[in-house]
Amino acid sequence: MQRLDGQRLLGAVLLSVLLCGVSAYYVPGAYPAEFQVGDLLPVYASSLTSFDTELPLDYYSAPFCKPAEGVKRIANTANPGTILEGIRIENSPYNFSMKVKQSGLLACPSGSYGPLDSKEVKLLKRLIDQHYRVNLILDNLPVTVYNLLDETEFLRPGFEVGYKVGDKYYINNHLVFNVLVYQTHGEYTAARKQYVKSELADIKALGVDPAYYMVVGFEVSPCSIARKAGEDVEAIVCGVDGDSHITPQEIREGADIVFTYDVFWQDSKIKWASRWDAYLRMPGGKVHWFSIVNSLLVVLVMATIVAMILVRTIRRDLAKYESLMVDGTGPGDARDEAGWKLVAGDVFRAPANSAMLAVQVGTGVQILATSLVTLVLAALGFLSPAARGALLTAGMLFFVLLAGVAGFVAVYVWGLMERSFTSWQAVCARVAVYYPGINLLVFTVLNLVIVHTGSTGAVPLGMYFSLGCAWFLVATPLTFLGGMIAVRVPLLDWPVKTNQIPRHIPPAPLSANPVLLFLAAGVLPFGTMFIELYFAMTSLWLGYFYYLFGFVLLIGALTCVINTEIAVLCTYVQLCAEDYAWWWRSFYRGASVSLYIGLYALGFLMSSMSSLAGFIPIFIYLCYMTLFVLAFYYAMGALGFGASLWFVYSIFKAVKAD
């Protein structure tokens, strides 16, 4: 009974942690919201972003109008993911009234912002040179300069701070907003639905529109217009013929900038459930399917090859080995005919530094499990981009909760190699410190580099404290709990005994050269995933939305399958060369795909990220891609090791049976 109560208590704790993580995903507009004509719709300001610097800035760090009530942080939009991504959402001076056309509204309560001093002029020019974009949010939809009704392949949120012509700089101080709305009748809100039914006659008698509207698109046309403070502000639609006489607002010292905006409303057939579809459009649908079909063919070919090895070659080897033993053939002939069976007395000999190998395998399994759970939830739609920071928050949450898996796997693998669980606590301690410590070290160095720039990408001390608590108070105890469970699981008996004296390993032939096997092992897994990797990195680093997690999940599964098959094949080739030191090499060969990902990341930096200027942006890119490649290294290495362990155990168990 006490054990059952303990299990219930543990389940309740884990459930509460999950609920806390899920509650962090709530943001205004994440659920259907209906508005009547005249209802106030506040526009929120998000961080300024640039893909030339990768350093987000606070919206009000630039000389923009501030709301009359003062700047306020929107608290319920903050979660660990948004904080780490540098997203800060605040109120803005822009406010709309549903279905009410508004023209020439002043954004600044005082009428204008200015006069600009030399520091502000220098800042605005730098923002324009570095292509910073202004990000506004209406009912959780990001603003965009693209036409949402067009079939645009890529859609980038935000609009440019300004532009440069020759040696002069101009600011986009006039915004023409176009809001797409979908008409409803309160069907998404039970209370409003009942109200409409009971009061519909009275509403119609008063001449009031009983309809409700939902925001399904948020577009903007920014332009620069020079105006004098205090003058009447007329409505001007940017880009309309006849407005060529407009003088743009130059950025110069002493200038008073009048920030104005117009609001237009457009009825749309886009429903609320589909309003993010335009934002999430991705190019190359045929290319994605071609990539998947190509990967499937590669996996089928490799599966056939591995099946031939397992079914035909190994059975043939076993048959020859059995006939040699029955006929009493001498050991010299047995060497020629037996191959991998000659290392039976050494194949399960514990490798050097087995504890570190076990730690890396446990870490890799934890990363694999975290990736699987996160991608499944994302593919099912639970981690929508509408909940900013949800994907990163979920990834960190599951990584912490799955620390017990890392502890269990590391301790059990170490016990298999050493045939004992003595000092298993030391293995758990290394698991708890090793990979999280590497991430925290890189993250700390990166934060120290960023913090003096004034970027919102600099993580505050409160977040550091929260990460430390999650690490030491949750992940570390769970790691030791996994280790405690592992020591209670009986060790798997090896099918053959290990000799006391190690066998001499002959020089490897060219076909079994360790370096060649390492380089060859990562080619096919990388070929399986590199097309999807291109789209993912393009979206991640160039500011486009990415939501093809179903493709990622499928390509990831195919990559794991092909990696497993290659690992088995290379281990077989190594054993046939009478080289029984397969433990570490199987891990390295599985992880070799990370080498090609790293080289691809460098190529992507030189080609697609050539706009990065300065040390800090390049350093940020290299740090994050290093962590990404490192995660692949441990995950794919653990997969290759696990497949090789299963393969070696299976074939020598078959030898014993014969």
Automatic annotation (TrEMBL):
InterPro entries registered for this protein in UniProt: EMP70
Keywords: Endosome, Golgi apparatus, Membrane, Signal, Transmembrane, Transmembrane helix
GO biological process entries: protein localization to membrane
Endpoints of the signal sequence: 1-24
Main location: membrane
Subcellular location: Endosome membrane; Golgi apparatus membrane
Pfam family of the protein (one): EMP70
Superkingdom in the source lineage: Eukaryota
Any one annotated GO CC term: endosome membrane
Membrane-traversing stretches: 289-311, 357-383, 389-415, 427-450, 470-494, 515-538, 544-572, 593-622, 628-652
Topology relative to the membrane: Multi-pass membrane protein
UniProt record similarity statement: Belongs to the nonaspanin (TM9SF) (TC 9.A.2) family.
Entries under PANTHER family matching the protein: TRANSMEMBRANE 9 SUPERFAMILY MEMBER 4 (PTHR10766:SF55), TRANSMEMBRANE 9 SUPERFAMILY PROTEIN (PTHR10766)
Name by which UniProt lists this protein: Transmembrane 9 superfamily member
Species for this entry: Volvox carteri f. nagariensis
